[in-house]
Amino acid sequence: MDIVPLSIDGAWEISPKLYGDPRGLFTEWYRFDHLAEAVGHPLDLRQANLSVSSAGVVRGVHFADVPPGQAKYVTCTRGAVLDVIVDIRVGSPTFGQWQGVRLDDETRKAVYIAEGLGHGFCALTDDATLTYLCSATYSPGHEHGVHPLDAELGIRWPADMPRLSERDAKSPSLAEARDSGLLPEYEACVAYTKSLRRPIV
Length: 201
Prior knowledge:
Blueprint: E1 2-5, E2 11-15, E3 18-21, E4 24-27, H1 32-39, E5 47-53, E6 58-64, E7 72-78, E8 80-86, E9 98-104, E10 110-113, E11 118-123, E12 128-134, E13 143-145, H2 166-169, H3 174-179, H4 186-195
Antiparallel strand pairs: 1-2, 2-10, 3-4, 5-12, 6-11, 6-13, 7-10, 7-12, 8-9, 8-11
């Protein structure tokens, strides 16, 4: 598989090799050792999530307190989404910037998102199904959101009328989250990531 860093530090795009014949398809969509070599430490898998969304649904932008944060390895197992990574780390050179990657059931691409980054997506098809491998379990009170339609972020969601959950619709803007001290600090995120480094066995 090819693992390529994105323009936002702490995010990678993963393109697995697909082996197909008239019977169907096989691919290794996650490799512990390859990911660890690319990002500098192994993914400590603590939880796996699955979400199903209809076309036009936007989920996010979500993030967790650091430490421990919640790194995510995300792929689309059915349909297609525009997966969006947002740099919400105060002090980061790319603070406030976002990058989108199409994930679908044809290329089988995935993204890895380090602790402290914001994550969201827009379903491009009905029954768009995302699978997440997460480095930490769900922790109520330590997980937050930034409004996905915040003009300051300017995310170009591919939906005429994005459909949001009640929670996401009530999320603060990036400026409000920053002013309230809700956002993670870039240096703290980098330090935490460095603390995860250990020999790969």
